[in-house]
Amino acid sequence: MIKTKNDLIDGWQLTHASERQFTHTQKDSLGRIDRIYTTRDLFKSCIEWTIEDNCGISDHQIVTFGIMKQNVPYIGKGLWKLNKETIRWPPYVNRIRKLLVKTADQMEDKMINIWTETKKAIKKIGIEETNNRRRQIQKMERR
After folding, report:
1. CA–CA dist 49, 3 (Å, integer)
2. How many CB atoms are closer than 10 A to CB 111?
3. Gap between the Cα atoms of 103 and 110, Å rounded
4. pTM for the complete prediction?
5. Nearest Cα to Cα of residue 12 among 45, 35, 44
6. Per-residue pLDDT reduced to its tens digit, 49-108
């Protein structure tokens, strides 16, 4: 098996050894079939192993983690990460849906370049809508 041959480990399982969480649901069955395998050396740089909601796009949940650069001191805010609440924010969802439809139409020719630009646009929209949401909440709190 590839996992054994390459001495790979299931990072989420190792991090959450005492937890039971599932990544796939189908009728009456649950399973954790979605995994990310890593080497033991790379695992030392992996942080924040989670199983996230998929926002209704699949019957599978999403296994996620972050990778810290090795031998580099922490400086600044770190990597940008989309606020979980923004994912459900209707203006964000509408803008991202339109962007992804447009992207799907263009992907046949320049898939990698288009996807790179789309990720940048998603980040920009995420930042804008997080700020818009924050301002709207502050407005409501002042009332």
Report:
1. 19
2. 11
3. 10
4. 0.42
5. 35
6. 787 877 777 777 777 778 777 666 666 666 678 888 888 889 999 999 999 888 887 766
Sorted by where each begins, the domain ranges of the chain are 1-73, 80-143
How many Cα atoms are found within 13 Å in the side-chain-facing hemisphere of 103? 18
Q: Does residue 50 contact residue 65 with C-beta atoms inside 8 Å?
A: yes
Dist. CA 56–CA 31, nearest whole Å:
17
Element (H, E) at 63: strand 62-67
User: CA dist 112 to 82, 99, 116, 133, Å?
Assistant: 22, 16, 6, 31
